[in-house]
């Protein structure tokens, strides 16, 4: 289980995240909604060790990983798939995946590679091709696969559908659902609330660096705090 408690993140004098608490449970998708600037990505980046938190605590299965170095957090079982996919374009698909399993022993990495190819057959078909020649959706699958190579217990996904063709968005979010069903705790920041709510089990809504709603996905659609956080005050005006 991933548990973020009373997290604060500052950039110079600006506090981007103010006392945020949220969690992700194995086998479930926790969807994080909020307008641009709400603090969603900063929360994920702090949990992953990419930016330093000013206060608060991040725990993975009860172990404190707050402000540890990113590679240490990956080794402990938590990985971030960043916005924009960021695959290594000149390298092959297989080389990208192998890099994702750098912390695993060779035999274990080979076994996980087979599992990744089983989950994403298109990657096996393209394994010898350059990653930069993949479509946007295929690159997102590769980013997922690269993260899975570390055998994570928790995955944080930052805007995985951004910039994708509508025909690919459902495939990508379907892959998110499958990863959760494999037993991984998934914390998902998603720009498309309607599709995100289709695959989510739990929802956290943020506004101005704070959590304004936490609850089951089925309650989120009708909750005014969620609408206000994602769409602004205008969403509440008939």
TrEMBL record:
Q: Which SMART domains match?
A: AAA (SM00382)
Report domain ABC transporter positions.
2-233
What keywords tag this UniProt record?
Answer: Amino-acid transport, ATP-binding, Nucleotide-binding, Transport
Q: A biological process (GO) annotation for this entry? A: L-amino acid transport
Give the GO molecular function terms: ATP binding; ATP hydrolysis activity; branched-chain amino acid transmembrane transporter activity
Keyword Transport in record: yes
- SUPFAM superfamilies xref list: P-loop containing nucleoside triphosphate hydrolases
Q: Which Gene3D superfamilies does this entry report, sorted A to Z?
A: P-loop containing nucleotide triphosphate hydrolases (3.40.50.300)
Enumerate the InterPro entries for this protein: AAA+_ATPase (IPR003593), ABC_transporter-like_ATP-bd (IPR003439), ABC_transporter-like_CS (IPR017871), BCAA_Transport_ATP-bd_LivF (IPR052156), P-loop_NTPase (IPR027417)
Family recorded in the similarity comment: Belongs to the ABC transporter superfamily.
What is the protein's given name? Answer: Amino acid/amide ABC transporter ATP-binding protein 2, HAAT family
- Native species: Trujillonella endophytica
């Amino acid at each position: 289980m991933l548990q973020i408690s009373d997290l604060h993140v500052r950039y110079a004098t600006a506090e981007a995240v103010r006392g945020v608490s949220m969690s992700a449970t194995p086998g479930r998708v926790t969807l994080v909604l909020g307008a641009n600037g709400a603090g969603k990505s900063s929360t994920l980046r702090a949990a992953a060790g990419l930016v330093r938190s000013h206060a608060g605590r991040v725990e993975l299965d009860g172990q404190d990983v707050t402000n540890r170095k990113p590679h240490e957090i990956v080794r402990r079982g938590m990985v971030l798939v960043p916005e924009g996919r960021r695959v290594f374009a000149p390298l092959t698909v297989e080389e990208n995946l192998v890099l994702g399993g750098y912390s695993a022993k060779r035999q274990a990495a080979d076994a996980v590679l087979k599992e990744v190819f089983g989950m994403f057959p298109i990657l096996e078909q393209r394994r010898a091709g350059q990653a930069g020649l993949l479509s946007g959706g295929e690159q997102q699958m590769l980013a997922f696969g690269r993260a899975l190579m570390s055998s994570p217990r928790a995955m944080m996904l930052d805007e995985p559908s951004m910039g994708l063709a509508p025909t690919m968005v459902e495939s990508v979010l379907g892959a998110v659902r499958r990863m959760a069903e494999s037993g991984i705790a998934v914390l998902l920041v998603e720009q498309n609330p309607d599709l995100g709510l289709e695959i989510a089990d739990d929802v956290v809504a943020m506004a101005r660096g704070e959590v304004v709603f936490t609850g089951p996905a089925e309650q989120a659609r009708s909750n005014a705090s969620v609408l206000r956080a994602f769409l602004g005050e205008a969403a509440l005006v008939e």
